[in-house]
């Protein structure tokens, strides 16, 4: 606790933007576990957030350095000075769950439930999911566990540390359903995967992703937000979204996906 507090004081008292420019590198912590946003195939990174990271570095006049980091270690990595910014499918939160600065939001999404096409008929209503024999996969450390406990208190929750392991578990029959955001579901519905989005959890609620910075780094936060505004005005955001197939409106596969 003392070490963490000391790191926090050091980072917040340091002008991170000046250090980035002096170093000549923008260090980006990213999990590489999220298709279309931040995906690492063992050799290369790809995705919308990866392109944004490169663009941020270019606008700052520095190189980009991608630091592969487990999702649960993104916040601690900021305060241990492993990287300057965390990027890669991080939901924006107003709950104070992160002791960090959050950039402006981007890429609106909704929460969906995914299952195999063969299991689609088993879950024609949300009530059919709220049973002890139904196993619902969620990502540990995210808002999903809270959502599942709220909407499906009788179901069995199975937590995963890696996003990419959940679709495999659904496909293998180890869990019945997984909860995800629409961009994640969009990738699997567009590929040869047997997974489909069977329904939206809260169709009227919308959420956004954001990037994380150390607490107190106002100059860096202002600069990142300014660049994010700039890419919208110049149409660059749209170009990246089209490149990664994030521009298409998302729809669940079931005709009655909005019914309870």
Automatic annotation (TrEMBL):
It holds the Pfam family SBP_bac_3. One of its GO terms (cellular component) is cell envelope. It comes from the Bacteria. SUPFAM superfamilies: Periplasmic binding protein-like II. It is found in: Cell envelope. Belongs to the bacterial solute-binding protein 3 family. This is Cyclohexadienyl dehydratase. It comes from Vibrio spartinae. The lineage of its organism: Bacteria, Pseudomonadati, Pseudomonadota, Gammaproteobacteria, Vibrionales.
């Amino acid at each position: 606790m003392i070490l963490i507090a000391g790191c926090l004081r050091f980072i917040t008292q340091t002008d991170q933007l000046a250090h980035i420019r002096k170093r000549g590198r923008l260090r980006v912590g990213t999990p590489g576990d999220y298709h279309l946003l931040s995906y690492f195939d063992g050799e290369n990174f790809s995705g919308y957030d990866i392109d944004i990271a490169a663009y941020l570095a270019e606008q700052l006049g520095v190189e980009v350095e991608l630091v592969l980091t487990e999702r649960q270690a993104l916040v601690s990595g900021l305060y241990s000075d492993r990287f300057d910014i965390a990027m890669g499918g991080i939901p924006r939160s107003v709950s104070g769950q992160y002791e960090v600065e959050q950039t402006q939001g981007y890429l609106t999404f909704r929460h969906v439930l995914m299952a195999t096409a063969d299991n689609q008929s088993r879950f024609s209503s949300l009530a059919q999911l709220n049973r002890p024999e139904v196993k619902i996969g969620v990502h540990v450390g995210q808002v999903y566990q809270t959502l599942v406990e709220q909407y499906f208190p009788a179901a069995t929750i199975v937590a995963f540390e890696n996003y990419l392991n959940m679709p495999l578990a659904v496909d293998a029959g180890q869990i019945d359903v997984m909860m995800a955001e629409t961009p994640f579901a969009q990738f699997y519905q567009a590929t040869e995967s047997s997974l489909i989005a069977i329904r939206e959890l809260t169709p009227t609620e919308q959420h956004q992703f954001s990037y994380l910075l150390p607490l107190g780094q106002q100059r860096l936060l202002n600069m990142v937000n300014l660049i994010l505004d700039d890419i919208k005005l110049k149409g660059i955001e749209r170009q990246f979204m089209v490149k990664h197939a994030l521009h298409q409106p998302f729809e669940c596969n079931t005709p009655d996906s909005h019914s309870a």
